[in-house]
Recover the amino acids of this structure.
């Protein structure tokens, strides 16, 4: 590992061109890396409040994580890239977290399985404990007649100012727009949902009413 400093950021590179970039104020002991692959990158773009730990698992090539400024990570945040099955690769994936997101709970997991799948999270989102976002089913299902695979990975998009309550599960293809709330123990599937709604239940349905979410640290 080659470690050097440019301005107020530390850069770490290995022989496989995997790169880690973080502000000098970050305690590196709170960054836990497992890297298998080449050309992967992890970047914290500015100062964040890292009270817990970030666990990063790269199992693939050309994957990237970016974390915006003024995010709060209070406990354990897991960022994972994996193959999603024996015949597929965990390559060319990305996890993007915009500014001012608050990972308040423990055991929060963002997972990209299979190549070319992406998770994008907008500004000022709030995560309670045991929230999971995953782009892949983690296994393959094939049509018995055509032999075509029917459950490929899909991207997850989250707008700004979204609140994820405890034990929410966000599955592949979900598109959650600005100002929404995902209720406790809800499962969000591959649909596009309107702004300012509350998503509730197992087979998710969105409330017809619209709400304004205010996030206040108390």
């Amino acid at each position: 590992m080659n470690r050097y400093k440019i301005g107020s950021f530390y850069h770490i590179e290995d022989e496989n061109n995997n790169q880690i970039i973080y502000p000098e104020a970050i305690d590196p002991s709170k960054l836990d890396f497992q890297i298998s692959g080449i050309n992967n990158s992890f970047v914290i773009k500015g100062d964040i409040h890292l009270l817990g730990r970030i666990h990063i698992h790269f199992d693939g090539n050309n994957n990237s994580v970016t974390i915006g400024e003024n995010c709060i990570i209070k406990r354990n945040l897991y960022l994972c890239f994996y193959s999603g099955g024996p015949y597929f690769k965990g390559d060319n994936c990305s996890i993007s977290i915009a500014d001012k997101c608050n990972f308040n709970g423990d055991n929060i997991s963002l997972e990209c399985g299979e190549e070319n799948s992406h998770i994008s999270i907008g500004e000022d989102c709030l995560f309670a404990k045991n929230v999971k976002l995953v782009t892949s089913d983690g296994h393959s299902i094939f049509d018995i007649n055509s032999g075509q695979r029917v459950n490929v990975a899909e991207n997850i998009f989250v707008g700004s100012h979204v609140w994820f309550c405890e034990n929410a599960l966000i599955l592949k293809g979900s598109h959650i727009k600005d100002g929404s709330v995902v209720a406790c123990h809800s499962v969000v599937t591959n649909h596009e949902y309107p702004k300012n709604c509350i998503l509730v239940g197992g087979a998710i349905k969105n409330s017809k009413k619209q709400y304004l979410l205010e996030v206040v640290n108390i």
